[in-house]
Each structure stands twice: as C-alpha cells, then as structure tokens.
Amino acid sequence: MKRSGTGRTALLASLLVLLAMTGGPTLSLSMERPTPQEIATLRQAGELEQRKAFARDIGNQRIRPDLLKRALQRARRAALSARGVSTETIDRLAPAAPPRALAGMPTTGNVKTFALLIDFPDYPHTSSLEYIHERLYGAGNPADAPLESLSAFYRRSSYGLLELSGGSTLGWYRTSYNRSAIAQTLTGRENLIKEALNYFQAQGHDFSQYDNNGNGMIDYFIVIWAGPDNGWANFWWGYQTNFNDATYRIGGKRLNSYSWQWESRPAGGYFSPRVAIHETGHGLGLPDYYDYDGAVGPDGGVGDLDMMDGNWGDHNCFSKWVLEWITPTVVANGAQTLTLQPSATTTNAVLIMPGATLDNTFSEFFMVQNRYRTGNDTTIPSDGLLVWHVDAALTPSGYDYLYNNSYTTPKLLRLMEADGREEIERNIPANAGDFYRPGARFGPTTLPSSASYSGRNTGVLVTGITQSGDGFSATFSVSDLGKPLAPPGNLTIQPRN
Length: 497
Description:
alpha/beta; 3 domains; five-stranded mixed β-sheet; 10 helices
C-alpha cells in the first residue's frame, strides 16, 4: 500500500519508534507509515491493535501467485535448454505454463480502467475532473516526469506493452450528505462506491468495457475521495483492496480490485498520480517490497529503490519479468559476457539460475539489471548494475510463496549492496554504494556473497564489469558448484564508488 513521498529518514525513524512501543512483532505496514506522535496517540486511546489488524488484513505484501509461477516455469525451460536438454524432455519435465488465468488485471495490451471521483458537501474537491484525468490517462505535466501521469509511467515501464490511456474519469460525484455520515466499515466503503457507480450507470456510462479479459469482472479501478485522511491504517487512508460484495453487478459485471485514495495529502492540495501509480502496481499483481515488520527478517525492504517500496524509480527487473514485460537472458551454467543497456528504456536483464537440473526445480536465483538515470529512473542515486537475490520457494501446500518482504526470513526480493555495508538492513535508503560498477565483482567470496540463504555455494559470479556510455558489460557465470565457501575472513568488501 501507499507510503507517501515525505522524508524517508522520518518514516524510518517512525518505524523504529513504533516497533519499540509495540514490542516489535506483528506490525503490518501495508500503507503509509505512522509518525511517533500518531502511534503515541493511538496507543493512549487504545486503538493501536485495531489499526494494526486493519493494515494486516489488506495483505499487499503478497505477490500474485499465478504471475510468479508462470515466470518461474518460463525461466526453467530456458535454463534446461541452455544446458542442452532436448525440447521433448523439457516439455515432459517443465511443460509450458498454461494460459494466464482469467483473474486480475491484464499486464499487457490496451487495458481499460476508470477513476471514480467522490466529494462531499463538507469536503468539496480542489482538482477539476480534467486536471485529474490528464494526470491519470493523459500526458500529464512533463515537468513532473517520471510521475507526470499514470499512463506515461506504465507505458515507459512496460516498453509500450501496457497501455492505460484509454481510461475514463467519472466525477465529481457529490453525496447528498456530509462525509461524517459514512460508516467507516467495509460495508460503508462499498455502499459509497456503489452509490456513485449507480449514478453514473444511470447517466448511461457503459461499465462492461472495463472487463478486459472477458471473465465477468471489472479488473481494476481507482477511487479518489476529497477531504483529509484520518490517520494511519484507518478508513480514510490510501490502499488497494478487493471488492467484497459478490452479489453487486454494474454493467453486468462484478467488481474485482480497486485502489482507495485521497485527492491530496494534506487535503486542499492538487492531485498527484504518485499514489495511483503505486497502487496500480498492486492491481497488476505486485507486492509491496518494503518491510512491514522490522522484527522479522532483515530490515529495510529494498532500500526504497523501487516503485513498490519508496515510490522511487522504475519497477525492478524481477517485477518486470513476472509481469511479462521482459525476457531475461538465462545463465544456468558456463559463462556469458553480456552488455546491458539501461533497464528503464530497454528490456535487458540477466537471470542467473544455479541448480536448474533435470531433477531439481529451482526457486532461488539472482537477477541483474543496469539501472541508469534515464526514463523512470531519472531520480535514482547512481548508475550501474543492481544485483537482486530472489527466493521464490513455495509453501508446503504449493499454492503460494513462502517468502515476502514483510514477515519472513529470508525475503522474496533482496537488493545486494555492492559496498557490503548492509545499510538497507539498518533502515538506511539505497545509495550510490549499492550499484556494481567497474572494479566491483559479485561471487562466492565477496560481501555480499552469492551464497544461497542456506549457505550453499551457488557458484554464481559477476565479474569483469566495464562501462561504455550508458551500457554496462560483465561476465555472468555459474561454476564451482558444491565447493565450500571461503571463510568470512576472506570476504572482500567492495569499495564505495
């Protein structure tokens, strides 16, 4: 869920204070993090546990299982092929992923969504419908790039594979009663949404057009309400969730997922698409990558360096891979020297997959991309290669993923910090030292190392990094499998660049 662009240091300090005040475990932060003052007030009022339960129930820490399952199957097939396994054997051991399940918002194509604007007699809106529509489905204000509009951000991020510009903006719908009359419950929220939708259907709007995959459901929409928020993990806050009333139909369709967000924070300002960009990532199936609970597993998420963490920069290569926007080069054995162009503008990425054999279904691997300050990445702190450690192990049931970035050790997605300082795990945002640049290397004897979370030597190496213009070249290899890792004294800390 949403955490705003206010000072990262203050947000991180707030989290530490909250953990201390609540005893640490069970904290869920699937939305903007609270200030110490808010927590003290909630605790004194006896509302803290209620707020924590509300946040936990939203569940945006989970990736959409079908997306990751399909991506893993595609990569395993590529890895087995790279090892010389015949197509017949691959089809038997790793059959092609079935067609995408008709559930959820499509990740490619011309996808129609809509925004529903609601204001109240006591809280009239500030931004016009035209102003908001331009920043959702139009070109937006170029001066605000890369967050000038929802459609522009996703057009760039998906390399033109996902087009959201055909959306509609409906509003402003003004209730006949003050906002204070709305019951701050699931039913209260959904009744308000239904009231507004029914109004626009009576005006002739065709809602059936937002069922993009013909499964009888409106895939995703955005609700924007006027007025102030009422505090962390509360009714009037910013988050993405699913519509609960399965009996309700509009245009003959059920409602699926939607984001629920403010017009501006603080109230009275003008609309920014920042929240909608983040929440639409959830609508597509992506999880939050920031840490809801600092007492469980490594702290710090991915150092804010992602649209699904600190709303900072583009979606990372792992997210783009599961959304089927890129097909990374898979290195499963041997070595390949490759040049990666900026991932903000090209589909280059490498997936290094140790252990992909005939009798082993891999789940732990590394991905590498070139993050360069261009496109959606113009505001990131440096240029260079980023290395990601992924652990996509399944739960015993086989229907979900064991790890996420909020409540588990290890994480689903962890940024390998090139300088070895582990600052993200101390709640320090990502910085230039986390980028792999010429002179740096990544492997079994570096810090961080390419060991698996169990301590096994994966044999993964990234060496010989060079730069030419905005491109970075390196040799990516998998070798020396099974050899013991060097003792900690032999690990080398990469210099800060």
